[in-house]
Design a protein that fits this description.
Blueprint lengths: L2 H10 L3 E4 L6 E6 L2 E7 L5 E5 L2 H10 L3 E3 L8 E5 L6 H17 L3 H6 L3
Antiparallel strand pairs: 1-2, 2-3, 3-4, 4-6, 5-6
Amino acid sequence: MNLAQFQEYCLSLPGVTEEFPFGDETLVYKVSGKIFAASGLENFETINLKCDPEEAIELRERYEGVIPGYHMNKKHWNTVDVHSGIPNKLILEWIKNSYNLVVATLPKKEREKLGQ
């Protein structure tokens, strides 16, 4: 996966904004003001994604390129190495899962605006 693919996919999801709350080098994607994905902009090597705690552990055990979330709550976030051989299709699925986890926590009115 490359940076352009990551950006295009995240921005294709309903209600997503692209922001730089941590400085010019960290790209952050939010839905309704809540982060669901983050990565380095200059050195696109990893993506931080929200994950169900039990699934997070399972993915870390199954894939060498998945580790506890860097600079994030390690219980709820994974860092995915995009150059570790994990198929793009799977990474895109994990991005969508991260988005869905955040959307599920939003008030009903917000979810409805997003078509959820």
